[in-house]
Amino acid sequence: MPKRPKDSYAVEPRKLPSGRWKGRVVRYDETGKRREMTQTFDTKREAKQWAEHEAALYRADPNRKPPSDETLAQFCTQWVERLITVAETTRADYRLMCRHVSPALGQKPLKNVTAWDLQTLYTELAQRLAPRTVRYVHAVLHRALKDAVAWGLIPQNPADKARPPQDRPQPISPPPLDDVQAFLAVADHHPLKALWYVMALTGLRRGEALGLQWRDIDWDRRTLTIARTIVEKSGIGRAIHQPKTAAGRRTVAMSSFLYQILREHEGQQRLESQAFTGWQNDAGWVFTTRTGQILSPRNVYRSFQRLLTHAGITRRVRIHDLRHAMASYWLANGVPVKVVSERLGHADIRITLQVYGHLLPHMQAEAAEQMDALIIKPAGETETEAGPQTGRRNSSISEDTP
């Protein structure tokens, strides 16, 4: 029997007693010595794909070193730090998600991680984390392992076949109008009065409102342009980001009342800048500390909670609920969904409908009543009184007439 050429090749996968499959690759090192690599998979197809992939890599580069025993945790840590096109706040989020992996699966070699391993991880995480968080862990792992495939570290992405829990968000419940009015009554005497009114009357996110600069206000057209957002993360501090989508960078109209509030705030800030010798606001931030510094989102949140207490509001209200409240009031008062979506900066009107659609049941009844008024002749009304019945076909016209 002729000798097999000293070239790497894949061996037919072997089924294990556990029901899983072992992929095998035979290769020869630089001295001609035979080496065998193995890895276990959930299916025969996966084992075969891996073996053929590894064998092809060794045939293309006989001097290629075999995959190291780098663990999943080690790989994820290095992967996060090597990312170039992400903001530092996003990198911080990725680090946090990777830390969820370490206790249960982090010490397993990257090359041995399977879809079953990830599925088990998600099940364990779901016992103590919200479904949305587990899905975020999955999203980060999926991206990391996709890069591992692209870099030739693993033949395929095990996260492709793992299924995180479904995220079933609870329908939002905006604070009632009475609560918002009570909050603004107290906020009327607060140093950040203008900020609270901007958020309550425009639906801007906290970071978007804090990112406003005076040059973003067009006094003649009475508009605000959202061009940046302020974010704050542990270990990083405050950062200035551009809107994530084109829809996020938008211009919204302000009411006459809000126009007056901001004019008063502008004058007050000018007086403060003249009274304080250490004033620093070269960027022209609309909302600042008493010394002209950019506001901390966390401190703004604390101020918001104190105002809720002073207003006697006991139910749990987040600062983001001001945005939800504004959106719900617009929709309830007949503002078109597309206009609401544009003001909120949603990338797609479907997002608006998904978040706020449950608040619109009255539109079904209104649509039905409008059709009655448009098509059905009111009782006792003659045809002459009702005017021409444009919805009824003239009997003298042939059915074939287009």
Automatic annotation (TrEMBL):
Q: Where is the Core-binding (CB) domain?
A: 70-149
Pfam families in alphabetical order: Phage_int_SAM_3, Phage_integrase
Which UniProt key words apply to this protein?
Answer: DNA integration, DNA recombination, DNA-binding
Example GO molecular function term? DNA binding
Q: Where is this region: Disordered?
A: 156-175, 379-402
* Composition bias, Polar residues: 391-402
Q: Which residues form the Tyr recombinase domain?
A: 167-369
Which biological processes are named by the entry's GO terms? DNA integration; DNA recombination
In UniProt terms, what function does this protein have? Site-specific tyrosine recombinase, which acts by catalyzing the cutting and rejoining of the recombining DNA molecules.
**Which family does this protein fall into?**
Belongs to the 'phage' integrase family.
> What name goes with this protein?
Site-specific recombinase XerD
- What is the native source organism of this protein? Sulfobacillus thermosulfidooxidans (strain DSM 9293 / VKM B-1269 / AT-1)
